[in-house]
Amino acid sequence: MSLKISELHPEQNQRQISSLLEQHSRSADQDIPPYEREAISLAAYENDIFAGGITGDIVWNILNVHLLAVDPSFRGNGLGAALLEELEARARLRGCKVSELTTMSWQAPHFYQKQGYEIFGEIKDCPNEGQTKYYLKKKL
To answer: Of 44, 51, 60, whose CA–CA distance to 100 is shortest?
Structure first.
């Protein structure tokens, strides 16, 4: 066998990989639903000024929170919690049962824990010694 490994545009590669994974899932269990990703993107504005935003996607009734940021001048007023709550509410309406996310030790692990998330995994010394990447989840 003479295989060549090369770079491929991410969208094209994702489509081809997804097709292979779908075939595998169907062969393992016919009841596994298709792997369909639905993106959700919310933004908050005050007087046409971007105050913050959140993005995520839904796959197999799991909300994956990707990005959440609030402009420093709008922090401390509950905007981050409001954005997260709205994303979770929209995910619940779409049938989600759980939410998951990652955050770094210098970012917001305590914020997410205050919102009901629990740490279920971590990678220490990532990306540098003394820092940690946390994996969190929450039942919706």
So the answer is: 60
Q: Quote the DSSP letter at residue 44.
A: E
CA 39: distance to chain centroid?
Answer: 10
CB 96 within 8 A of CB 63: yes
Residue found by looking up tokens 């935003």 in the block? 53
For every residue of 60-114, DSSP letters joined together read: TTEEEEEEEEE-GGGTTSSHHHHHHHHHHHHHHHTT--EEEEEEETTS-HHHHHH
For 7, 39, 51, 103, the CA distances from 64, given in Å and listed in that order, are 27, 9, 22, 12
pLDDT one-digit tens code per residue, 37-47: 899 999 999 99
